[in-house]
Amino acid sequence: MNHLTKLQRMTTIGILSAISIILYYFKFPIPFFPPFLTLDISDVPALVGAITLGPAAGILIQFLKNIVDYISHGSYVGLPVGQIANFLSGSLIVGLIGAFYYVQKRLHIGSYLISVLLFLSAMYVLNYYFILPSIMGLMGIGEARYIEGFTKFNPLATDFPTAVLFVIIPFNLIKISLVYAIGVPFSLRLKRLVQPERKNIAA
C-alpha cells in the first residue's frame, strides 16, 4: 500500500481507527483472571495498519482509539490511566511486529518471539512502576487490598511483584497471542491482494 496517496493513507487510517473504536466496545473476561482484566480485538485493525502502512500508522490508530474512548467514556479513576495503558500496550503489540515487517519485508518465527519477549518485558516494567501504582493511588486503595483481587484468582500472586509476574504477564501473553493469531494472517493476506494492483500501476 506504499503507492497510496497521502489522502488515501489518512482515509485508510481513519477507517481502521473507526473499526478499532467499535471493536473496543466488545470486551470479554477470560477464565482464571480477575474480571477487571478483559480482552478485546480492537488492536487488530491497528495491526493491519502497522503491517500494510507502516508501524507509525498502527500507533496512530491506537492513539485515535484511546483519545475517542476517553472523550466518550472518561475514566473510572478520573485521569486516563486505563487509556494510556491501553495505548502503550497496543502500540507495543502493533509497533514491534510492524517494525519487523517494515525492515525485513517478511515475518518469521524470530520476529514473533522477539516481539513477544520485548512486549512482555516492557509490560512488566510499565505495570510495576507506572500503571498499577497509578491506579492504586488514584483509587485510594492500599497495595495489600489491591493484591487480594489477584490472589483470589492465582494463589501465586502473594505480593506486588508476583501479582504482575503471575497474573498481568500471562494475561498480556494471551492478549498479544490473540491479536497476532487474528491480525497477522489477515494483514499479510490483504498485503498480497493489494500487491498485484501495485504492479499493474507500475506497469
Q: Mind explaining what this structure looks like?
A:
It is a single chain. The protein is built from 7 helices and 2 strands. It has 203 residues and is mostly helical. The chain has a single domain, classed as Arp2/3 complex 21 kDa subunit ARPC3. It has a two-stranded antiparallel ribbon with strand order 1-2. Helix 1 packs antiparallel against helix 2 and helix 5 packs across helix 7. Residues 198-203 have low confidence and may be disordered.
Write the layout of secondary structure elements.
Blueprint: H1 6-24, E1 28-29, E2 38-39, H2 43-53, H3 55-73, H4 81-104, H5 109-139, H6 143-151, H7 160-202
Antiparallel strand pairs: 1-2
Question: Could you provide a short overview of the structure?
Answer:
With 203 residues, the protein is an all-alpha fold.
Helix content: over 70%
How many separate domains make up the residues?
A: 1
- Helix count equals 7
CATH C-level class: Mainly Alpha
Strand content: under 5%
**What's the total count of β strands?**
2
What's the architecture, going by CATH? Answer: Orthogonal Bundle
Q: How far do the termini sit from each other?
A: 16 Å
Secondary-structure-derived class: mainly alpha
Uncertain spans: 198-203
The rounded Rg comes to 18 Å
Strands of the largest sheet, in order across it?
Answer: 1-2
CATH topological fold name: Arp2/3 complex 21 kDa subunit ARPC3
Tell me, rounded to a whole number, the average pLDDT.
90
Shape: globular
Q: So what's the oligomer here?
A: single chain
What string gives the helices and strands in order?
HEEHHHHHH
